[in-house]
Amino acid sequence: MVRISAVMLTLFAGLGLSQGASAADAEQGGVLAKRWCAACHVVAPDQQRAGGQAPPFSAIGKTPGLETAKLALFLLLPHPRMPDMALSRNEAADLAEYIKSQGK
Questions:
Q1: Which one of 18, 45, 58, 90 is separated from 67 by 20 to 30 angstroms, measured CA to CA?
Q2: Please, are residues 87 and 76 in contact by the beta-carbon 8 Å criterion?
Q3: What is this structure's pTM?
Q4: Spatial separation of the C-alpha atoms in residues 38 and 77, rounded to whole Å
C-alpha cells in the first residue's frame, strides 16, 4: 500500500510539473543556480570552476532525452549529495529549464 501511494504521489507530482514546466523561466532558474548550485557545479559559461566534483550544467543539459519535467521532479526529491534546497514546484521547473538551456 505504501509503495502504491509513493508511485501515485510521484505520478501526480510529475503531472503537475509538466503543466508548469511550459511556463518555466530559465532566467529565474539561473538566479537559483547561482545561489544554490554554483558551489558544486559550474552553472554558467563565465564560471571558471566549482568546489565539488559535480558535472557542469552544460554537460547535464546535453543529456540525450533530458526532459525538464523529470529533471524538475528530481530536484524536488532529497538526494544525499545535494543540500535540501526546499524549492517550490515553480522554482524546480525554472531551475530545470535553466539547466537544459545550458546544454545548447
A1: 45
A2: yes
A3: 0.77
A4: 19
Q: Distance between CA 51 and CA 45 in Å, rounded?
A: 16
> Could you count the other beta carbons within 10 Å of the beta carbon of residue 90?
16
Cβ-contact 73, 92 below 8 angstroms: yes
The alpha carbon torsion through 64, 68, 73, 76 (nearest 10 deg) reads 110
**pLDDT per position as a tens digit, 45-98:** 999 999 888 999 999 999 999 999 999 999 999 888 888 889 999 999 999 999
- For residues 75 and 85, the answer to whether their CB atoms sit within 8 Å is yes
Handedness of CA 78, 81, 86, 90 (dihedral sign): negative
The set of cell numbers assigned to 53 is: 566534483
